[in-house]
Batch of 2 targets.
Target 1
Amino acid sequence: MSVSARDALRMAALYVVLSMLWLVVAGRVLDHLFDGSVAMAVGSHLSSLIWVLASAVLIFITRARLLSFIGLGTRRRKQDSERLRMAEAVFDTTLEGVLVTDRTGLIVHVNRAFMRITGYQQDEVLGQRPSKFKSGHHGPEFYRQIYTSLAQTGEWSGEIWNRRKRGEIYPQWQTIRAIRDDQGEVSHYVAVFSDISAIKHSEQELAYLAHHDPLTGLPNRLLFNDRVEQALGTAQSHKRGCALLLMDLDHFQSINDGLGHTLGDQLLKRVAERLSHWLGAGVTLARLGGDEFGVLLERCPHVGEAASLARDVIEHMKEPFSFEGHRLFISVSIGISLFPSDALTGEQLLRNADSALFKAKANGRADYALYTEELTAHAQHRVETAGELRRALEQNELRVYFQPVHDLTSGVMVGVESLVRWEHPERGLVPPGDFIPIAERTGLIGEIDLWVLRQACSQMMRWQAQGRSLAFVAVNISSRLFSQRGLYLEVAQVLAETGMNPALLEVEVTESAVMDDPEVSLEQLHRLRELGLRLAIDDFGTGYSSLLRLKRLPVQKLKIDQGFVAGLPDDDDDIAIVRVIIALARSMGMQVHAEGIEQAEQADFLLQQGCQLGQGYRFGRPMPADALKWG
Ligand code: C2E
Ligand code: MG
Ligand code: MG
């Protein structure tokens, strides 16, 4: 029932009550005042007259109010519909999207801006739920907060990512309000939103500008520092090393002064391009200002790696830069600082790299320097050696020397061990101990060992052709090669190429190599053995062999390490160890072979203990093939 109907009913009821009250009261008063029936009749006429008059006044008053009320109502209705039209116009012309749902969350209205922003037409969304636009960007907790806020305060506003019809997701700034009816019940929800992707984009652009160098597009010092701090955090938790390289162009100022800043800028741009192209995505490269660049190596287990990167960068920068008709030659100097050995914080790391850079510049430029001086020399040597080794292989600077192995009973030379040497153009004959470990680190060892194998087999074939018979030629194979599954295939290929009988080849592997990774070694040794060659364990006694494992290995020989032979025949410990090794080898049906025999007494003692083979300066040093003496 409407308000006015309720009011009218209330008025009618009041009229009935007042009329009755008037009749009762007037009756009583008349009874009391008049005795005669004539007087009574006159009185009752009078009271009726008074009531009629009072009713007329009452009707007049209410009627007058009603009329003014009706006039007001029409005015109000007019105003309301005007307001509604205005609202609708605003609703339709506003740039903000508007969406109205009923209290159950079904969409009942959307405006034009909504269609423009979302790409949906009205009939595609009416009767649907706003969850249709969910982007998947927010978790359930986010939406729960919206509902809670709406329930508690009737309003929510914030950033929300939704999906357009095309599928693209975009950010909105949205305000949702609950609309309540006269009884205070929620009847609708109105959401007003604007597309803020443009604002977001410019925010990102701003952030990009704040963190990048506009000339080269590389990260700037701010971002670099940030990345360094992050990298140190990760490195610390993963217990690994990082390196920071600070690089500066040599004599850049004179290019700038001589050719002008525009050309200087062009050069810097090209330096940045060359560097970032060459370093690749995994390394952070930044322009820290002027002609200074920073490189962050997030994984740097050895100082040698940072040094070798620096060396390569220096080499790369030596190539001329050609542009705009100019051909510019530049050089760079690099300072290196390492985490955790040199510094524990990003700031300190940068400072140390800076003083290392100063050192590199002071040393004559076009070079690198490490923060720690001793490391510089060490790393320099290693980096140089690694670089030179590559050249040595290409230019045939490696040599194979042969050391005789004698039968201790007869004294006759029965075999030889191949030992590699490097005939360095400046350093002279370099022993394997100086370059094999570096070759192992850089991966060159594979090429070296196979090259030695090929030389040894070819030499053995030549000796055979000359009628010089030997029971075996031994070669050393690095444990690093054990990780190559195809090792046996490469050995087989060398045997096939040289035509050597596999039974004449002995492959030596060190005891520690075999024991470090017994499972892999076991497989490799079996495969090699299947080729028909013989296997020996080198430097036996130094690698803490497990006897159990030793028994499982397809090995035919143990070579007693020269460290135990040196103390013979007087040192009790060496005597005991050598005796045990010989007994062990014999019990397992293996040959024993002693290394490092320098004196006749050592050879005699070993023979007495049952060792059949011996090698050492007493019989001959490692020497070129043609220097071997044949009995
Ligand atoms: P190794 O295989 O145990 O070789 C024996 C080493 O002892 C050789 O050193 C040899 O010159 C030295 N030697 C031999 N007799 C005596 C002696 O009476 N007294 C003393 N003091 N030393 C003696 P070299 O040639 O310097 O080789 C050192 C090590 O380098 C070798 O130890 C071997 O492990 C490794 N090596 C040599 N050539 C190669 C190769 O082609 N490939 C691989 N992977 N390693 C090799
Ligand atoms: Mg050896
Ligand atoms: Mg040895």
Target 2
Amino acid sequence: MLEIQFSQARLPEDGAVALLLADDTTLTGLAAALDERLAGAVSRTLASGDFTGAAGCTATLLSPGGGLSRVVLVGLGKEAALTAAVAEKAGAVAVRALAKCADAVVLAEGPAALWAPSVAFGAVLESYRFDLYHTRQDEAARLRLARLAIGLDAPEAARAAWPALKAVADGVFVTRDLVSEPANILTPAEFAARAEALRADGVSVDVLDVAAMQALGFGALLGVAQGSEAEPKAVIMRWNGGAEGDAPVALIGKGVTFDSGGISIKPAGGMEEMKTDMAGAAAVVGAMTAIARGQAPVNVVGMIGLVENMLSGAAQRPGDVVRSYSGQTIEVQNTDAEGRLVLADLLWYAQDTFRPRAMIDLATLTGAIVVSLGHERAGLFASDDDLATRIATAGDTTGDQVWRMPMGDAYDKLIDSDIADMKNVAGRPGGSITAAQFLKRFTNDVAWAHLDIAGTAWASKGRPGCPKGATGFGVRLLDRLVRDYARV
Ligand code: BES
Ligand code: MN
Ligand code: ZN
């Protein structure tokens, strides 16, 4: 991870420097001193109109003289409109422009100083790379930048604020790493082993194996797993940062390490993306990391179901009927609607065992949510308006944005089955909603929300603070949500 330092602002003798400038682009303080050292090169760039100071715009001066290798101007937009999100974007675009420098100084003078931790946060999020399997360096994609010194007046406050943000960035990186791993490496057992690493952060971790899940009666989850050679696991993670006996917030994640569709097999084109079908579980592990390292003063339970959805002579067939942990029976009409089967047993277990004050599941559940909301927002489904509002607000403030979708009895009755209590699919219309209605039948009136992250877990194009690939969606939202529960 990019190393961050906050230090007293000063002009370096050599190397690379980034200047954060609001859109009035007046040069004061060290920026003015730098311009003078460069014989007006910064003012001339501003006068050229190439750099407006709009939020997120940049201009780079290469070998500008004065001993410096490069100077990057980064726009902050209107001073009055400066927010954490704008500061993060500035940090991210600065890292893009400084990618080929081993280290650099970012001068955060004036209004930017207050937002220095957010600048660092955006910079770190942008610096993410998943490089494990390249044996040759891709020079174009490579990030040489290893250290970023952020210069400001009175850096102590920024230094004190940084560990909390660093914990969240750690969590986002954990999630991105898990989602990026191929399914031959990240099997259910390997995923469970990585979740066990949370013990080092003070999280208690229990792993349920097949025998334990059979004994409990996790018939819905085990039905999905039975076609794979890989043994399924369920993992329970507990962070007790709140008062003893306080009802926890429960976070539940779909962890299908590969989704072939099973006997209802998917088309070949794009099937490789189904290695990301564990992004909900990865978001829960990332959030637990952020919550524990950030010492969140609240009780949180995380639970993930890890299975591989494969085809074999032992695989579940369309038409099979399974008995879920809740006792309700399910007709499996389509083996590709497996996520809801995995979540059904986890949701019932979580509400029954932990009596949570709120229960939130995350899942790459339906292609239909990508049709509805694209890659910009996750679908939010909730049985509780207060919880829905908290999630939408946490999403807006952190950038993990969601959009609430409707639910209701008219949708619920579409999953009634002729042979069992319910069926796991209900045709194409409203496919994300009927999936959510299915989950709701396993929540037993606990305040519950479901985030369908099928469109937001993976990005084929990068954005500032989020290189293309695994996004880490959900970690920031969940960390914020849980912290807000600590306050009220
Ligand atoms: N994992 C998929 C959903 C998915 C689609 C995730 C695209 C990421 C990107 C899920 O298990 C699935 O296959 N859903 C089916 C449900 C259908 C059979 C009712 C779908 O969306 O087609
Ligand atoms: Mn599927
Ligand atoms: Zn799936």
